[in-house]
Please model this.
Amino acid sequence: MSKLFKTLGAVWFIGGFIGGVIIHIIMEGNWLTGIVWLIGGAILGALFYTVGEIHEIVWENHALLREVLHRLPPEPGDKKPPLGNSRANLSALKDYKMNAKDDQR
Model:
């Protein structure tokens, strides 16, 4: 993908230059239109090429991060503790009596 962006950047840069020259010739000396094509091609070419470079750097960082994470030992907190007996001990509530209160509003 980064090669695609870099290639598109080069194509826009070269296409803007060639288009600017051709437009200048077709428009019979109209420098303003030719310069606009040159600047537009240079800006778009630089943007596409920069996005390609950024994409390449991100993928390199992604690969390095995966390698680092793969080499790290597993943390002791990764394993879940055994649940053991899940029954609640209700013996403390054996003789508990609830008092009804009429303070409800």
In short: DSSP finds two helices and no strands in the chain. Residues 2-73 form one domain. The mean pLDDT is 83. The helical segments are 2-26, 31-71.
